[in-house]
DNA sequence: TTGCGCAATGGCAACGTTAACATTTGGGCG
DNA sequence: CGCCCAAATGTTAACGTTGCCATTGCGCAA
């Protein structure tokens, strides 16, 4: 084993190649004003010494990091993997890297995410919001640090992007009404979930828009067990022919709950969920659900930052609609 | 809007506070050799100017980034969220950040992950391996860049860490044999999956260790549908009283497949899976499965790098055993 | 022959931070 | 009253890179 070498700098390469540091730098950036043979000599020296450009020196000089920070309050949230896929895809496209940080949610504020990021080598940041931060109204992004929030709430100073949960409910409810149902029952979620609450609004308002007074909802907790209980409860309600659950796990649980009480799906009751999360996990016939493109959401967020390269940013709000996936759990009642 | 300010440096703070740059630096690091009242004055200046220490300058000076890079060939893989939770948790503990990169899997080599990372501001790197890289045997980590592989294969030059998939199978098979079964059938997975193949070995060798010749396995593809088909096929085999599937989705599908052929679980056949991934998704009685602590795996990997702080690293290999979770899908046959 | 222009390369400075060393100040003690 | 020591603060230089400008060498036109 050789002793641990100090890191190799342009200076070392320059010395070995017998050129100036500047020529090494130009070679690294493949400048046309270096003679091909000189370039080759420099490259040989780089190979021999194992030269790797130093990120810190470069960033210091350039004043840019080519990196986007991602702050999450909760790493293991639904859709985070797909969003992450989107973050990295967009970052790659622009030659950026992604720096990931978990933010302690006590208190649950944008300020804590922001100050966490401020010490890191990032040019901009993305915050994934699941709940309502205490300082949402008053938060100001750090000067010079473009900030994108992944949320449906519009912020006056930060761009935002998310799936359109309101429209998701509209699609599902109108689809079910279109199939001949007189009303749609709803299995909700814990009240602190922003997206869940927005789905709830969408369900309620779409029904009203069709002149239907929304029936009493059943509050679930995202788990199949709570869906199962809801299904059992709704099985005894003769007015209930269509059920919309705020996620697929509850929808699936609901189906099994209905079946446990002798109801058949979709013959007696139609059931729809949201997320398209059960794809390969459940062997049953395909659930009617809404598919979101979280990867696209992630890409949009990072594009907004990495694609701006010095352009005056400008606040923008983007909602991507989901796609309704017809499954075998809804039949035609007309 | 004010014009975009140039970033604020220690120099600006020093001028405003009427002290030297060094005193500002010392204040930032809360050195005891600065008078409290001076500190307060400096801090006031920092607040007024909105000073944030510059990461590049700091790293350049220190020669360290306090950052660990994570390279993934496939972001949306099972367990990645939990691993990521572990990465960030360990990084936090040491005051490190995580930089995430997707590596193109063509070709699928450690070299491509390594060279991707070499240009980023990281002190060490973690590679998540799902398949066998073409250059596994010949790969050498970059000098000065400690590299940890998340895999069960031991590497001569890199530390490795993963769940113990062999032991996982041992636990399941011995549990089932202990419940009185004469043999255990196995639903496998695609052959390129390293962890899946190791589970297969574990199943086979554990049976042999008990003097049992392993029955013919059924190759699945991770999906519940393939498990369903396997269940149907095995339903007609009278010797089959215990089935071990290489993941929970296939196990669940298998149960439904058996049921579709009139077999009852666990009365007629016992079924076990791996992953503990169906927790809240399926309302049925609890599947017998093995739970892995991917967060711990992630923490170990980052600890190995961030916890070493200049210590001569040393190659180490770590396997964490899973925990068998008894469910209602196995009955006692004794 | 001289001068001009272009291609190729070199020298210098600065980005922001902090380790190492230097200096000043004030207090205690002989 | 002078000396010494410790606490508090200041000065300098260097980390690696690259933009800007200067310099060199060469071919070609006047």
Keywords, separated by commas or semicolons:
homodimer; 334 residues; alpha/beta; 434 Repressor (Amino-terminal Domain); Rossmann fold; 3 domains; six-stranded parallel sheet; four-stranded parallel sheet; 11 helices; elongated; disordered N terminus; DNA-binding
Q: If you consult CATH, what is the topology of the largest domain in chain A?
A: Rossmann fold
The first-level CATH class of the largest domain in chain A is given as Alpha Beta
Spatial strand order of the main sheet of chain A: 2-1-3-4-5-11
Radius of gyration of chain A: 27 Å
The averaged pLDDT of chain A comes out at 92
End-to-end Cα distance of chain A, whole Å, is: 79 Å
- Assembly type: homodimer
Overall geometry of chain A:
elongated
- Uncertain segments of chain A are 1-5
Biggest sheet record of chain A = 6 strands, parallel
Largest interface: A-B, 59 and 59 residues
Count helical runs of chain A: 11
Number of domains of chain A: 3
CATH architectural group of the largest domain in chain A = 3-Layer(aba) Sandwich
Q: Helix- and strand-based class of chain A?
A: alpha/beta
Q: How do the helices and strands follow one another from N- to C-terminus of chain A?
A: HHHHEHEHEEEHEHEHEHEEHEE
Report the helical percentage of chain A: 25-40%
Total number of strands of chain A: 12
CATH superfamily of the largest domain in chain A: Response regulator
């Amino acid at each position: 084993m050789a002793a641990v070498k100090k890191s190799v700098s342009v200076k070392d390469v320059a010395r070995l190649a017998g050129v100036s540091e500047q020529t090494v730098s130009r070679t690294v950036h493949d400048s046309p004003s270096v003679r091909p043979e000189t370039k080759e000599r420099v490259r040989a020296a780089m190979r021999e010494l194992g030269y790797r450009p130093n990120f810190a020196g470069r960033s210091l000089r350039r004043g840019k990091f080519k990196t986007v920070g991602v702050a999450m309050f909760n790493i293991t949230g639904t859709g985070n993997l797909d969003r992450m896929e989107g973050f990295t895809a967009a970052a790659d496209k622009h030659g950026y890297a992604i720096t990931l940080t978990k933010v302690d949610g006590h208190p649950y504020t944008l300020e804590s995410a922001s100050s966490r990021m401020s010490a890191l080598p990032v040019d901009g940041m993305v915050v994934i919001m699941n709940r309502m931060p205490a300082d949402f109204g008053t938060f100001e992004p750090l000067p010079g640090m473009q900030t994108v929030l992944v949320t449906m709430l519009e912020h006056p100073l930060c761009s935002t992007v998310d799936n359109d949960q309101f429209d998701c409910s509209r699609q599902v409810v109108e689809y079910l009404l279109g199939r001949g149902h007189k009303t749609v029952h709803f299995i909700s979620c814990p009240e602190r979930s922003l997206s869940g609450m927005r789905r709830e609004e969408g369900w309620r308002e779409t029904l009203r828009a069709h002149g239907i007074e929304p029936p009493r909802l059943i509050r679930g907790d995202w788990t199949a067990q709570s869906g199962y209980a809801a299904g059992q409860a709704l099985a005894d309600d003769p007015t209930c022919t269509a059920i919309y659950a705020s996620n697929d796990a509850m929808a699936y649980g609901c189906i099994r709950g209905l079946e446990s009480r002798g109801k058949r799906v979709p013959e007696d009751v139609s059931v729809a969920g949201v997320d398209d999360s059960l794809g390969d996990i459940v062997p049953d016939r395909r659930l009617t659900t809404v598919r979101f493109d979280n990867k696209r959401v992630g890409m949009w967020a990072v594009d907004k930052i990495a694609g701006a390269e010095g352009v005056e940013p400008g606040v923008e709000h983007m909602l991507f609609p989901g796609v309704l996936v017809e499954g075998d759990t809804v039949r035609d009642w007309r």
